[in-house]
Design brief:
Length: 421
């Protein structure tokens, strides 16, 4: 449905036109007088890359040298990663592509620019403010990005959990990659990782991600509601006048910052809820909720109907083989495993990342990684449940009051009929 065009929209359009006419000959005049114009941003692909740091504590191979995990080694296009003697070494050959960061199941590689929460916020900010937002790489864009273009060292840096959150919250996000752009790229593992991650997220979300292959198809159009918000904020800053109070239609508009703050609050509330229920194991070790899992849980909390699409792996114990040695508990990188009660194995599905290390270290082979849907990962939202309960109670009271009023009315009508007789 087309948005209603009102006075504020007319003022915004006029102000944009006036802005373009403020100094139409400014550039020519500056050139003739030898005045240098403000320096324009320069395109430098290195600005969108950073070398990751390694944290050995959650690394599966560092914890157990016989681990079969080789995710980061397989993802690195130049074999710059070496893991030995309980340590991780990243050589100078590193291309700063970030593929190891997104490939690691335990998030032991740290790169602030492409951390799952940060990446979601960056994409969401562009999508909330513009009609379409694009995620692309330095090689595909080759120029200074516009406000709605999120540039990464490689699009393979976006994990399935981030794509799922983006797809469910902002369907106006597309990937921009010209045809064959990945064919000759030196980050040769990026295309495979990109395809796998996007396919997984699309299967989870039950929706497809947009794709642009032509540079001329890229647009940069701000959402009308965002322009209105910018206009009102500017008036408030310059005049102190609360414009939103003058127009009830604008009072309900939500800024990009507010939306991101609400998403961040949901992540925090979710973590607080889970930690309150099972934040530590019996050995008093605090469980670790990695960022990718936080995004997944938050999305499922908001859209529980998607749980049947999401497949996860969790360890299942054969208690006839288990000797309760506790090796699984000691080695779990996120402390999701535990021995409870009389020493029976238990796993907290919300924290478990399905890495399989517990099954690998079990000396009695009592644990088997089993695939299941994500229904167990849906964390009830206490606030939503309270609102639903309050609404149900209010509806019940309203129905009761309605029934009582109807009964009184019928009784009154009966009295009137008797008087008429």
């Amino acid at each position: 449905m087309a948005q209603q065009h009102d006075l504020f929209d007319d003022i915004i359009d006029i102000s944009k036109g006036i802005g373009a006419l403020k100094n139409p000959l400014g550039g020519i005049t500056d050139t003739l007088m030898g005045v240098s114009s403000p320096e324009a941003p320069q395109w430098n692909p290195a600005d969108y890359k950073e070398r990751p740091r390694a944290n050995t504590l959650p690394c599966l191979v560092c914890k157990y040298d016989k681990s079969s995990c080789s995710a980061c080694l397989d993802a690195c296009p130049v074999d710059a990663i070496t893991i030995e003697d309980g340590g991780i070494d990243i050589s100078d050959a590193c291309r700063k592509c970030g593929l190891c960061v997104s490939a690691c199941p335990t998030e032991c590689y740290v790169s602030p620019r492409i951390a799952p929460k940060k990446l979601y916020d960056t994409i969401a900010a562009a999508a909330a403010a513009h009609e379409t937002a694009y995620v692309t790489c330095t090689r595909a864009l080759g120029r200074v990005p516009r406000e709605n273009e999120v540039v990464l060292a490689c699009v393979g840096d976006v994990t399935p959990e981030v794509w799922l959150s983006v797809l469910t919250d902002y369907p106006n996000v597309s990937v921009y990659l010209p045809l064959d752009i990945c064919t000759h790229c030196r980050n040769k593992t990026g295309e495979e990782q990109l395809g796998e991650f996007i396919a997984t997220a699309e299967e989870w979300a039950g929706a497809g991600l947009g794709l642009e292959v032509e540079a001329k198809a890229l647009t940069c159009t701000k959402r009308r509601e965002y322009e209105r918000k910018e206009f009102m904020d500017n008036v408030m800053r310059t005049t102190g006048l609360a414009v939103s109070k003058l127009n009830p239609a604008t009072a309900a508009l939500m800024s990009v910052t507010q939306r991101l703050q609400e998403h961040s609050s949901r992540l925090t509330d979710l973590e607080r809820t889970i930690n309150a229920a099972c934040g530590t194991n019996t050995e008093k070790r605090r469980r670790v909720l990695i960022q990718g899992r936080q995004l997944l849980l938050t999305t499922l909390q908001q859209h529980p109907e998607l749980a049947e699409n999401v497949r996860v792996q969790v360890p299942v114990c054969d208690f006839s083989k288990c000797t309760m040695c506790g090796e699984c508990v000691r080695q779990c990188p996120v402390h999701a495993c535990d021995l409870v009660g009389a020493g029976r194995f238990k796993v907290e599905e919300q924290y478990c990342i399905g890495c399989g290390l517990c099954a690998e270290v079990c000396p009695d082979h009592a644990l088997t990684m089993t695939e299941m849907d994500a229904a167990a990962l849906v964390v009830p939202d206490p606030e939503t449940e309270q609102k639903a309960a309050a609404a149900a109670k209010a509806h019940a009271e309203a129905e009761k009051t309605k029934a009582e009023a109807k009964q009184k009315l019928n009784h009154l009508l009966d009295q009137v009929e008797k008087l008429a007789e």
